[in-house]
Design a protein that fits this description.
24% of the residues lie in helices and 22% in strands. By secondary structure, the chain is α/β, with parallel strands linked by helices. It has a single domain (4-251), classed as Metallo-beta-lactamase, Chain A. The strands form 2 sheets. Strands 6-5-4-3-2-1-13 form a 7-stranded mixed β-sheet. A 6-stranded mixed β-sheet has the order 7-8-9-10-11-12. A hairpin with a 4-residue loop joins strand 8 (137-142) and strand 9 (147-150). The relative contact order is 0.15.
Length: 252
């Protein structure tokens, strides 16, 4: 599964865009999170015009992950006439959307994940550690070829995910990563990630959700780094590829 990033920034790094990714499955568009900058970046993408329906996976309710969700749902339904499915285990999302003027008949809310999703994608949520007073989820995403894991905001790579990466059950992990370490962290520091992931597996882990520019350090440690646009083959450790500015990516 090849995903593309619309933005790779953390909440306090808006110039890099709200961290969000998308991919196509047959004629289905899948979007992971819809933060403040996402609607602006997604609205002119050819995939949005070409798809038959939109499927949005929400990891949690912080504004940098749902900040433009209401506008995007409304645009897809009332301007494009495309059905929208929003998936999350957190029933509170429906309340948040209603408070912003998005009624339940404007989208389909899916909180159960046993059945396959449109386009044959299997989605399995995994609760992760992030915010003390908010439920947060990562997602296993599987097509007919492989399974990946997208962490959302998570202060550690779950042991279950690491074990599945080791056995090859998970082909690739997209892990939010920060550079700074705090006493009560809500994000996974690069140092912590190095202590968790063996060197031989790091090329299969992509760091994302950057609060500052430490891509060179992440690459030197053997990790891949998210880039706005299509995910490309992993570079050799220590080789740095310059990121495309979000404002230029949105104009493409």
């Amino acid at each position: 599964m090849r995903i593309k990033f619309l933005g790779i920034g953390a909440a306090y790094n808006p110039s890099w865009g709200s961290n969000s990714a998308f991919f196509m499955a047959e004629k289905q568009l899948y979007l992971i999170d819809c933060g403040e900058s996402v609607f602006c970046c997604m609205v002119d993408r050819p995939e949005l015009s070409e798809c038959e329906a939109v499927n949005i996976l929400i990891t949690h309710l912080h504004s940098d992950h749902i900040g433009s969700l209401g506008s995007f749902i409304s645009y897809c339904r009332h301007v494009l006439g495309k059905p929208v499915l929003v998936a999350t285990p957190d029933h509170a999302l429906a309340v948040v959307l209603k408070l912003t003027g998005i009624e339940e008949d404007e989208y389909e809310l899916r909180t159960e994940f046993a059945a396959p999703f449109p386009g044959g994608i299997r989605v399995k949520p995994l609760e992760v550690e992030h915010a003390q007073h908010m439920k947060c989820f990562g997602y296993y995403l599987s097509d007919e070829n492989e399974t990946i894991f997208y962490s959302g905001d998570a202060n550690v790579m779950p042991e279950e995910v690491l074990n599945r990466l080791k056995t090859g059950e998970v082909a690739h992990v997209y892990q939010e990563t920060t550079y700074m370490e705090k006493q009560h962290p809500s994000h996974c520091s690069l140092k912590k990630l190095c202590g968790i992931v063996p060197e031989e597996l790091r090329a299969r882990v992509t760091c994302m959700h950057f609060g500052e520019d430490f891509q060179a350090e992440a690459r030197k440690c053997g990790f891949d780094v998210a880039q706005v646009g299509e995910v490309r083959p992993v570079k050799a450790a220590g080789e740095v590829e310059e990121l495309h500015p979000v404002r230029e990516a949105c104009a493409v």
